[in-house]
Amino acid sequence: MCPYNEKESWFIVSMWHGLPFQLTTIYHELLHLQFLYYYEDYLKEKGLKKKQIEDLKESLTFLLNEPEFEEVILVKDKGYPSHQLLRKKLRKVWQREKNFRKFLDKAIKIIKKEKII
Prior knowledge:
Layout: E1 4-5, E2 10-11, H1 19-45, H2 50-59, H3 84-96, H4 100-113
Antiparallel strand pairs: 1-2
Helix pairs in contact: 1-2, 3-4
């Protein structure tokens, strides 16, 4: 919905939506940029393909709906329909494992093991 450029670290926010939606969009896009900046090489080292990294990146925005972000998120992040099952599975793992690196390793296993998208 809102394009971004990972290499130049910019994104666009829709002027057609209200401020609460725009703020959620900003958090959503910042999460993408930060995730790729810090973890893309790690994911490649772990054997994930480009499509798997994209699916994980998009699915991870479920985190914005978690209690850790409740004070800043005004509109729930819904994600794309094709990622709903993965978001649900990742959320269950996150609720048990709040250490992001350990969570990420488990998420990698889920993506490698299952054809859920």
